[in-house]
Amino acid sequence: METNTQNIVEVRNLTTTYGTRVIHDRISFNIGKKEIFALLGGSGSGKSTLLNTMIFLKQPKRGEVRILGQDIWRLNAKDALKMKLNIGVLFQFGALFSSLSVLENLMIPLREWTHFSSQDIESLAYIWLTRVGLKAEVAKLYPNELSGGMVKRVGLARALALSPKILFLDEPTSGLDPKSARHFDDLIMELRDLLELSVVMVTHDMESVKGAVDRMVILKDQKVFFEGSVRTLEQQTESLDLFLYQI
Ligand SMILES: Nc1ncnc2c1ncn2[C@@H]1O[C@H](COP(=O)(O)OP(=O)(O)OP(=O)(O)O)[C@@H](O)[C@H]1O
Ligand SMILES: [Mg+2]
């Protein structure tokens, strides 16, 4: 299959199942470099399962997930490990270790995956803290001393600590109040520009879709019901709001 170098992710004829139950039936779509791309669909439509096929958590039954031109489910162990370093993930309940301070939480991936000195690792952790809009004082706090928005930001900093090319987010604004949610969207857009990231997010948050997302797929009945930009969808539907709230 030909690979377009403008695409960071290419999903080809992907079928996923749990037991005999088909969740996705030969779906295909592309995610462009530096896009903020959303996976949408009703509850149970397979958004999280689809995300999981891109982060090595759910093996597809058939078809391909190509990231940076490579079919990730057919890599040998060594290449799979290298590929995983291109990927940062913020899970919905982006668990921080509650017994560790923010700084210690941020240092974990750097300790595990780099040979930097402790001093360099600490400096990097502070850099990431600032990049996600948190003050240096936050470093010494523990997760139970943070607001929901701050927890998300620390989780984000940790997901980005190894400078991945693609950031995967599962419901990043869920549980945040509307104002914090919009700030988080703004941060994602800023980081995309600053770090030249591609961002793939599962979301129910229609304000995020309208404000931050470039393109999306909408999943329905095991298929891709729509792939394209918010603007295209707007042109195709009478009321975008009504349409988005109905899916
Ligand atoms: N580990 C699993 N084993 C069996 N079935 C599963 C598993 N995970 C998900 N499913 C089923 O697969 C379908 C798709 O689930 P998935 O979590 O991908 O949907 P979703 O679109 O993310 O839904 P939501 O919006 O509720 O998070 C659901 O019917 C779900 O019950
Ligand atoms: Mg889900």
Strand and helix map with partners:
Elements: E1 7-18, E2 21-32, E3 36-41, H1 47-54, E4 62-67, E5 70-71, H2 77-84, E6 87-90, H3 102-113, H4 118-131, H5 148-160, E7 166-170, H6 178-195, E8 198-202, H7 206-212, E9 215-220, E10 223-229, H8 230-236, H9 240-246
Parallel strand pairs: 3-8, 3-9, 6-7, 7-8
Antiparallel strand pairs: 1-2, 1-4, 4-5, 9-10
Helix pairs in contact: 3-4, 3-5, 4-5, 6-7
The structure holds adenosine-5'-triphosphate (ATP) and magnesium ion.
In short:
It is built from nine helices and ten strands.
CATH fold name of the domain at 1-86 and 166-172 and 197-247, please? Answer: Rossmann fold
- Which word captures the global form? globular
Flag low-confidence runs: none
Look at the structure and give the CATH class of the domain at 1-86 and 166-172 and 197-247: Alpha Beta
Describe this structure in words.
This protein has 247 residues and is α/β, with parallel strands linked by helices. It has a domain of 144 residues: P-loop containing nucleotide triphosphate hydrolases (Rossmann fold, 3-Layer(aba) Sandwich). The protein is 38% helix and 26% strand. It has nine helices and ten strands. The strands form two sheets. The chain has a six-stranded mixed beta sheet, with helices on both faces. Helix 4 crosses helix 5. The longest helix is centred in the C-terminal third of the chain and has 18 residues. The model has no long low-confidence stretch (mean pLDDT 93). The structure holds adenosine-5'-triphosphate and magnesium ion. Magnesium ion binds next to helix 1.
